[in-house]
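Dear colleague,

Following up on Tuesday's group meeting, I ran the structure prediction for the two-component complex that the binding team flagged. I've pasted the input sequences exactly as they went in, so you can double-check that nothing got truncated or mislabelled along the way. The structure tokens for the whole assembly follow below. Feel free to forward this to whoever is handling the docking comparison.

Inputs:
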Amino acid sequence: MGDNHYSDQPENESFAESRRNFLKNTSLLTAIAVTPGVVAKAAENDLGEKIASAFDKVPLKMEINGVKQQLSVEPRVTLLDLLREQLNLTGTKKGCDYGQCGACTVHVNGQRVLSCLSLAVMHEGQKITTIEGLTKGDQLHPMQEAFIKHDGFQCGYCTPGQIMSAIACIREGHAENEADIREFMSGNICRCGAYPNIVDAITEVKNNGQKL
Amino acid sequence: MLRNPCESKEKSLNQQIMNEAFFDKKDYKSLDRVDGRLKVTGAARYSAEYQLPGLVYAVLVESKIAKGTIKSIDSRAAERAPGVLAVISHVNAIKVPGYQTSNQHPSEPPVNGQPLRAFYDNNVYYNGQPIVAVVASTLEKAQFGASLVKIQYEKEQHKTDFDANMDNAVLPAQAKKNPKSPVADYNRGDKNAFVNAPVKIDAEYVLPTEVHNPMELQAITAYWEADDRLTLYDKVQGTQPTQQHFAKEWNLPPENVKVIATFVGGAFGNGLHNWPHETAAIIAAKQVKKPVKLVLTREQMFTMVGYRPYTWQKIQMGATKDGKLVAINHESVGQTSSYEEFTESTLQQTRMMYASPNVNTRYRILKLDVSTPIWMRGPGEATGAFALESAMDEMAFSLGMDPIEFRLMNYTDSDPDKQLPWSTKYLKECYDAGKEKIGWDKRKMQPGSVRSGEWLVGYGMGTGTFGANRGAAAVRAQLDADGNLLMQCAITDIGPGTGTAMVQIASNTTGISTDKIIFQLGNSQFPKAGNQGGSSTVNSVGPAVQAACNALKEQLKTMIASKGGSNAAFASAKKEDIVFVNGQVQIAGNDSAKVDIRTLFKQNNIQKMETTQESRPDENRNKYSMYAFSMHFAEVHVHPLTGQVCVKKVVCCGDAGTIISPKTAANQMIGGATGGIGMALTESAVIDHRFGRYVTKDFAEYHVPVHADVPHIEVFFVNKPDTLADPVGSKGLGEIAIIGVAPAIANAIFNATGKRIRELPITPDKLI
């Protein structure tokens, strides 16, 4: 993980364009953000709608589950809330909104990212994969198959995050043994307590050696 | 690289739980979860995931004081904020008809109290109480609006410190009214037997507040489809109990309230009560005339939807020198809110688990300026078992006896509390299986005698028990011409795999293959069911599934036999012998008796055959004492310098009657053990008493077990049916999975270190 997914994406013309617009808008927003008094005062003076229009007008391009999307989002919208509330991709879950539980894990340019800690506009031009993007037609991803086989869940709420994290865990080379898996999956909480079954599922997929 | 020092390279043994060798050929087989595909693809929809047309968002603003009154609410800025549709509080909330129910004089407090009423008046009862709802067109706008609300309070002195106020504990009102109440004082035999016992222990135990914290945040989407028709997508454990609750609260006929909870992202008890945030969303939906979605924040999960109450216990235990119990006195004080009395069965197992002739129990509650608790997995029994099973270990050590031998010495073959025979009890089988699996022979009586490198090694055990509860439930079953079976019931599935188990019962009863059976649940419009709680689902709904399947067989039998001829054999066939194979009805062992269902339906001019059957507890409940039992063993390693505790291995043995779904049942046991590890080692919600406010309000501060905390967990089931408890022979599993785990770990820590920790969680500071 890390910040490299911000720089490894080529900026084509249109992405650069929208980024400039974004920056133009954000200069106003930053000024507001650092002086909360201004916001309150603006709201009292019925300037709220003007502020809102500035918020509203941020274009955003992303590729989500292989589909190019041209969006218009408020810069304060997290990637998680964008997926769940605006795009109806509710497979990605909100469990804490603080990056502490892992339920919101998605892949950004192939790496696991906590979508609740990430503003949508930070992902301009990037490739997002959610749990809904793992299946190919009717064919489940091997990790999804393994979770079913090993019963790696109960209520199912943490499951999409566990699966996204599990795939990344193997790709990162952090699934060499059960101890590693436990360590590098510890950011994904399962309150039902299906941990040992999840470890079994990941171990099996790892041992099968498929490219994920 | 960071690495958990507890980790071993030992291969996982989890697969062993599924070893079919433990199950007879005729027994239920492991089946993948019927809703597994929906859950691993993200297609399963939980309560906050219904995109209704015109949906808007509500965000709650909580009180920042623990006691007092609201002086003023300045909502002007919020109301003007972009996208905000309404700012709702007691000042402007519409009247909820069900709020005005008390006939008492307003100055008199109600006897058992009552649930907190959202936006009812200006009283503040605890820190974190919902005070205002801001409704807006998007989540972000509602959140921003909520940040602009200013509330002024008139503060009063609050009491949140349990220890400082324990002298104010009282007998629960229900026990005052009814001396036979389960929470009334209990005495068996000589009241003063403890005083003269030859060997005595006398100890106090503390369990901190623990919070359910299911991964899914509590969520509701409320939608008034008409002025008198309400639909709720709600995270609850019972669709019909919730339907009844809100029908009463809004003065509506129950059929006008529809509650959907198709998927519930864990609950562990916090969905057994209806809470103020639900009413808040319903009020908001009524006021803005749009569907409203309200999702609690993780912080709000600590104050708005209950918790396992802080509980103090004292046990005095007396025994003869050769290990016969002569007396147990067990006292408990549990926390509750100032406005609502919450009680649980903390002391029940002390009355029935061991053959002590003399037993006294005394249960009190302490009202504090906090929110109301609610049953949390294993509920009071898990709290009580921590004290009782720790005390049993302490006594065994005082006597110089093996803890299992000591328990066997005081084993009871009938219930000394109800004075009835057990329906079934296979606890000895649990002891035997578990002893071998944990490697009990490696345990030494003297603490600190076993080491692994620099780590101290300890072994401990704890027993669990929980009532084999059963309620009334009904199931609709529909057979189509292709031989597919569709069943419906209002029950929820909060994670154990209810649909999977019911499909297995139906398949076992009819012979229809599991892939041709669908069990639909989580809708109040389906046939009758109570809450999913108290380990009662399989015991209650399972028999209704069986009854519905058998009723279908009877209908078919009559239909077939009425045609006479070669099919007359059906008239006298036993229902057990009637099976469905490949779209045909057959009599087992009679090759000539075969009827094609499609042809039969065609002849009788029907598309489908349908029945709804209800199943209820029977009179055996008065003749037998019915409990499920469990036995948990733990091996821990404790670092003598750092006090770090690693749970190396857990073995769980369950006497839960028939195991319907071995795969999901084992998972449920593993989950209970995981919850028990949290109870024992990490979980504690802490209040800063200066403000009466929790300081542990997220997963960084409130520690639930993560992958790295959970070792290999081996699960074994006795798997012997209890058909006195119910026709499917199940005794329930959810609670016994956790009850007894925390004391097993605490006892193992004593065995490793010689340190007896009586206050959970056992954090490293208590061991160095």
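Residues 1-29 of chain A have pLDDT under 50 and may be disordered.

Cheers,
M.
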